[in-house]
Write a sequence for this structure.
């Protein structure tokens, strides 16, 4: 099954702020559904049931304390004149988020999962299928937006099923941090 490790965006105020931007940003792109908002810590790809057990054991061995992050800034991968992904970044709490991601990646590396790229904390809010115009100007008015704060108190191992209507994510494991 297709899997990844994620930290979900679950604060209603943050999600409402994201939704507002999605509604205001008039571009030809598919908005990510609010219930699917997350940081991808590491994409694992297709894994067996047996490996799910090993991944679960590894993730369950991670100890972390809950921490707060704030959402600020809007950006694009790979570049504004050729956007494929439009995302929201983090501000306060980014160091803790990166440390937690490093702990997760280190545990998964022991199982043979090496990250395909450096962890760049971001939450995808749009996916762009076909080439669209340069959106630098449209993003500029949201550049100093603040989207709110949330507590990061759990990490999740998720299954991802791709469907014509978009991905369906299912929690396979939830690891809670200390409050």
């Amino acid at each position: 099954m297709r899997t990844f490790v994620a930290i979900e965006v679950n604060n209603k105020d943050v999600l409402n702020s994201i939704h507002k931007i999605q509604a205001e940003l008039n571009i030809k792109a598919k908005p990510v559904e609010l219930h699917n908002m997350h940081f991808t810590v590491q994409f694992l790809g297709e894994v067996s049931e047996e490996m799910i057990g090993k991944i679960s054991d590894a993730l369950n061995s991670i100890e972390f304390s809950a921490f707060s992050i704030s959402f600020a800034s809007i950006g694009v991968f790979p570049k504004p004149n050729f956007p494929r992904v439009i995302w929201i970044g983090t501000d306060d709490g980014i160091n803790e988020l990166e440390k937690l991601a490093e702990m997760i990646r280190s545990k998964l590396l022991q199982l043979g999962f090496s990250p395909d790229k450096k962890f760049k904390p971001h939450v995808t809010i749009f996916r762009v299928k076909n080439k669209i115009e340069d959106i630098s100007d449209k993003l500029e008015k949201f550049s100093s937006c603040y989207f709110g704060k949330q507590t990061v108190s759990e990490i999740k191992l998720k299954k991802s099923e791709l469907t014509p209507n978009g991905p369906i994510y299912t929690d396979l494991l939830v690891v809670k941090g200390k409050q």
